[in-house]
Amino acid sequence: MDILVSSNLERLLYHLSNGDDVLIEDKMKQLSEKGYYKINNLEIDDFYGNYSTENEVNEAIRKLYIENNYLIDTHTAVAYSVYEKYILETQDKTKTIISSTASPFKFGSAVASAIGLDIDDKDEFTILEDLAKSSHIEIPKSIRDLKNKQVRHNINCDKKDMKAVIQEFLKVGEIDD
Q1: What is d(CA 71, CA 42) in angstroms, rounded to the nearest whole number?
Q2: 132 touches 138 (CB < 8 A)
Q3: What is the Cα 102 distance to its own chain's centre?
Q4: Which of 69, 134, 78 is nearest to 102 (CA)?
Q5: What is the pLDDT of residues 98-114, one digit of tens each?
Q6: Which of 44, 63, 129, 150 has the smallest number of Cβ neighbours within 10 A?
Q7: What residues does each domain of the chain span?
Q8: Exposure pattern of 147-167 as b/e (b: 16+ CB <10 Å)?
């Protein structure tokens, strides 16, 4: 997952800066315009940061499913994978809770593939049904009901064409980058 502008990060920085809303507004503007920002003098000694590759995310999903019969989503898999790195690097044995915030069915293809289900040439709803059958977990109603909803938007495009597609969709002229 690649979330450049995260409201959670913005809130965290706000608290770490003792509520300096001007600083945070400036940093979020820098992030939007330049793709990065730097903040000095924040007390972050209690934090650990790392990342997970796609392979590590898949391995975390597979491992927890096989060893614990527990199905996690891709976001939770990132947290679990990074937590494993944290333990290896720090030897910290503090009991830890990782709170899942998404259903594995929201990322059906990725999760199904990670646990070894065949997803080739299957539509997303068939994959979800296979995932439910394999995991013995019911598909959440809100996701299951999508199958019967009318498709309202079916425009697909490459990243390089996105600006033109949005302009056409909105029936407007030039859009600032």
Answers
A1: 36
A2: yes
A3: 9
A4: 78
A5: 998 799 999 999 999 99
A6: 150
A7: 1-47, 54-148
A8: eeeeeeeeeeeeeeeeeeeee
Q: Is the pLDDT of residue 174 over 80?
A: no
- Predicted structure pTM score: 0.73
First to last CA, the chain: 22
Alpha carbons 123 and 146: distance in angstroms, whole number: 13
d(CA 23, CA 10): 11
Residues near 125 by beta carbon (within 8 Å), at least 6 away in sequence: 146, 147
Q: What is the pLDDT of residue 1?
A: 42
Where is 169: in which H helix or E strand? helix 162-170
What is the SS3 assignment for 9? helix
Name the one residue in this structure whose structure tokens are 């938007």: 153
Of 62, 64, 15, 16, which Cα lies nearest the Cα of 40? 16
Assess contact for 81 and 59: CB atoms under 8 A.
Answer: yes
Residues near 85 by Cβ (< 8 Å), separated by ≥ 6?
A: 50
Q: Which residue's structure tokens are 């990065």? A: 36
Q: Is the pLDDT of residue 2 over 50?
A: no
